[in-house]
Amino acid sequence: MFPELNNLLNTTPDRAEQGKLTLLCDAKTDGSFLVHHFLSFYLKANCKVCFVALIQSFSHYNIVGQKLGVSLTAARECGQLVFLEGLKSSVDVFFRAQVEPHPLQFLRSASLQPCSEVHTWET
Asked: What pTM was computed for the model?
């Protein structure tokens, strides 16, 4: 999507590193174009992707992905993509009885200890 960004990061879909976590945070600006870039980049690189969507739906990301040359539906069906709709899933965690363990189950606990290993909370 952005060859210039790939050049700055010294990467291409042919040389994408497997097993890496890409975490995007934006403040005072909209960085959603980077989300679409990295999602399509890693799918084109045939990486397995676990994507937690907190803003938009699967349909939105799939439509944008198709414009960028990837099908999220096909990637999800073949097991390359695990797509978690965070807001929808968090409602399930809080307000529905859980039959099976849920990936966002830690939200139910009073302590957010699992998150502390990933993010340092500022007070």
From this structure: 0.69
